[in-house]
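Data deposition worksheet. Section B asks for the primary sequence of the deposited chain exactly as it was used as input, without tags or linkers unless they were present during the calculation. Section C holds the resulting structure in token form. Section D is free text for depositor observations; keep each observation to a single sentence. Incomplete worksheets are returned to the depositor.
Section A, Depositor: J.P.
Section B:
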Amino acid sequence: MTIEFRVLGPLEVIDDDRVVVLSAAKPRALLAILLIGDQPISTDRLIADLWGARPPATALKTLQTYVSQLRKVLGEQAIVTRPAGYQVRLERDSLDVHRFERLLIEAREAEPAVAGDRLRKALALWRGPALVDFAFAPWAQNEMLRLEELRLGALQDRVEADLQIGRGAELIAELEALVAEYPLREGLRGQLMLALYRSGRQADALAAYRAARVALVEQLGIEPGPELRRLERAILDQDPQLDTRPLDPPVAATGRPSPRPAVRSTSFVGREKQLREIRELLGQADVRLLTLTGPAGTGKTRLAFEATNGNGRSHDTVLVELAPIVDPGLVAPTIASTLGLNETSRSLATEALVLHLRDRRALLVLDNFEQVLSAAPMLGCLLVDAPGTQILVTSRAPLDLPEERIYPVPPLQLADASQPLELARLRETEAIRLFVDRAREAREDFELSAENVEAVVELCRRLDGLPLALELAAARIKLLSPRSIVERLGGRLELLKAVAGAGLPARHRTLRAAVDWSYDLLTADEQSLFPSLGVFVGGFSLDGAAAVVGDVDLDVVDGVDSLLNNSLLRTEPLSEGEPRFGMLETMREYALERLAERGDGEAVRRRHAGFYLRLAEEAEPALLGPEQLRWARRLDSERGNLRAALSWAAESGEVEAGLRTAGALWRFWQMRAADVEGREHLDRLLAAGSGSPSVRALAQGRAASLAVYQGDFEAVRRYLEASLPVFRELGDHANLSGHLGVLAFAAIADGDDREARALAEEALAVAQQARDSMKEAYALSTLGWVLAEQGELDESQRVVEESIRRARELGNVRSVGSWTKALGGITFLQGNYPRARELFEQSLAILRSLDDAWGTQGSLTGLALVALEEHDTDSVRGLLDENFAILRKSRHHYRSANVLEIAARLAAAEDRDRRAACLFGAASVFRGPTRTRMTDCEPRPDPTPHIARLRATLGQRAFAETWAEGTAMTLDQALAYAQDEADIERA
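Section C:
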């Protein structure tokens, strides 16, 4: 006789009506794990389940001993060894869970009386809570929840079947007890109301509704759902349909009813493009198998339902819900049962399906296939032997069949972050439309408004546009404002839970459950890889993934590919031709939780920081060479990870690694006009007071280089007073030369021409002593700047031309662009405006080709100065507009002062004198006390004569008032005033 296994209650094994005694706890747990897995389970997974995060060194050997013990008791063939691990050999119906699921399938298509009988038999298999022996074991939790949800669903279905055959009066006492046990299940409340009404107790039915409302409001703070409210209205109206059976569901190919998936009766929002594309694909004869893939909560089921519902298809559509099925062997019987076929045995179901579908045209919609992927070959047989059959599948992972066409389902459209918050446009954004629609179900007066639009946009973005997450968040509107929900999203997986009666399956009642569902389907290796990848911010490369995993026996390429297939990762835009991958933020939060549970998060973050230290140090010299654009763009794609690595270094005390990373990135930050951020990282790490002297000195020098571009020359001196002695002591001539040049800039700003010249000449001498060609080129450019500041323009021109020649020979394209810009400034000061324009245009082309925001802004400034001298006001205005766009992002006071002065001169040229005085006043604040002819190798004409003319024209009092208005402005206000045409006219 076949051995019978029971887990719907305490674990039992029955052999020939004899209870097999399994007294040892670990072997009992091992058997239970294998039974509910119902597929080969790896030894790694079994060890993790049995012993947790810290298994003993002998775990593998002990596991093999447990398997041997079980074979002695159950028979040598009861547990088989597969390439993927161990598996229990199960015959038909030898596991009570399989019998229970089979009876549920049979009940779906049966008439109410027969369905009720099948459901009673199914419920009779329960001897207590499922897996009750293992109630506190982590590996059992999800299956216990799944089975309990199936049991309650079967119980409600059995009550529904009895209601349909007129047993309402008999059900009242049972339903009252069930409602007392499960007070927040609106389905049971509705059945009790209907049973009371059909028993002639209308007042009691209405009282049952009031009791439901009180319970929901008091315990959850929500009103009853729309279905319960509609039932109350129908009872009040004594709707005749309440006395009849429910409307018949759609008819399948056999002429028998076909159940639809559990799709909520809510409005369908957005997805017009996806609906159109899916329907077009289903209309193509060569598309036989279409799989909708996507992460948990992305709306695959609802999209499949809408794409096949009421679209005028000429053949039958059969919808099959596979979520309750974990045994791949039950897929064919489930489809057969849905089609109304009597043959639902595992061995004959596929043959019966082929015979039934061979001469028919049908569309099978198979929902939630991810947990039964090993049943995919059966679908291949159907496609070959039933040529009129087409299959639409929803799954978080592809089926990997030759006939398969994959359609990735994206999250909902989000608001364009670069556009202003315009209500009319935002109301048409898919994610916002869905949120507002579902929020109105919870609170009828909810509207998108000027007061809440910013929070709603942020909420949709933080939830990645996932429909499930948005629906769960919208349900909280009864209790929380959009802003309050956003503020609580730090723990989004806990916050986003469905309210009672939401009509969602168990796996969708919380966002965590939806992601758990995907995670539990992974192999042990994949479950090891996924949490480690959570440390990446903004995506990662395969090299990065391999670095954070560390020295483990895991094929990262295969692991990433599998996580992509399972929709736990997504592809990101290529970075210089290299593939990149990333996670939705909801998935990343889940991964980090798993990493924390695993206990090695710090080791993973240390490997992450080490990888980005190596990347930054490799990029630093490359940003000077012919591949600098490629490297700059690579760093662009890694900004989030670089910031995360630097933050971790500061917080964990790994200061030296942080200083090395931050110091290596200084040129990248300067190129991207992000030197404010760069200095913040360096200052934070330097303040920690640790790190070797050489590393600290270099970091201080890099901070000084960034401070120069901000016009903070006091900080430049402070940094270099600490670092230059270290470079001298170490004999580090390359860094000594470069930072002497930086100090020369500070001397120029202080008006100390003699010191500036001495420092520039020393920098050149040290570079020549070190025989460092690149440092010589830099020292020459610095000396050229100093000479221009001192009025020696011809010599300055010769020296800068030599620095450009050397930079070109060395392949330093960026310096060629920057120093060509400086040469344009010198030519401008010489009064040769046509030649200056040519040089500024050359530098602009080079620096734009490098995506160098900082250099581009300087070249635009030079061109604007030339246009001013040539009285081309239209060109000035256009060049200023481009300049303002960069300055608003970089927020550089020093450079903003240059541009505000140009805007002031433009206003004066157009006889807007009050406006000009106001802008000169603002510029004086942001420039500070510095007075130079050249700022960052760009010309800066002396504004004094223009200011004197304005004072004379306006009069001392009016000038002083207007000047004061400018000095009171913030930088944002000054930039907006300089660009706002309406304000120009008023001025």
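Section D:
The chain has 48 helices and 14 strands.
The radius of gyration is 36 Å.
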